[in-house]
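Hello forum,

I keep getting stuck at the same step: I have a sequence, I want structure tokens, and every attempt I make locally crashes halfway through. Rather than fight my setup again tonight, could one of you with a working pipeline run this one for me? It's a single chain of 182 residues.
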Amino acid sequence: MKNQMNHEQHPKQLYSLPDPYPTPRVMGKNPYYASILLEDYAGISGELTAIHQYIYHYLTLEDCHTKIATLAHQIAIVEMHHLALLGKTIRLLGKYPVMHSNDHGLTRFWNADFVYYGDTVYDKLSANMKHEMDAIQNYRRHQHLIDDPFIQELLERIILDEEHHLQLFKTCRDEFCTTFYD
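Reply #2:
Ran it on my machine without issues. Output:
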């Protein structure tokens, strides 16, 4: 069949760093830490939002901007791996990885309003850069809130990929967007 992709063999080395991911481990069950990680999992700047946003951008750009579409698609696959790592960690902490986060004590279920759809290539790439910057900021904040070296190590490894994604999106925007209206 045409265009079938084996996700186990995608060119991951271009879209994630070669450093190994730590195996999800925790010092012990901690529902509070799990609640913090749910923001990274399914919050507005979380992995689930990134996956949906990047896949949407892939689908809307694949006919006219193949290189940008491929970038969005491949980064979405890396974000799926991050989602799985976070989900496993949330389970180890004693909670289910339900698609929600806590917003000032209130449960906020994930919804498609979190996704920035965008109109132009510039808009989409800029939104993806902002998403990566916000995710990095959240991961850093959560590293300080979570006193578990195993989780801190996992978050640091994910941050490395997010910083790489930010640079990839920036390079792509600089290469393809000569004006704000591209």
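The longest strand covers residues 100-103. If your local run keeps crashing, start a new thread with the error log.
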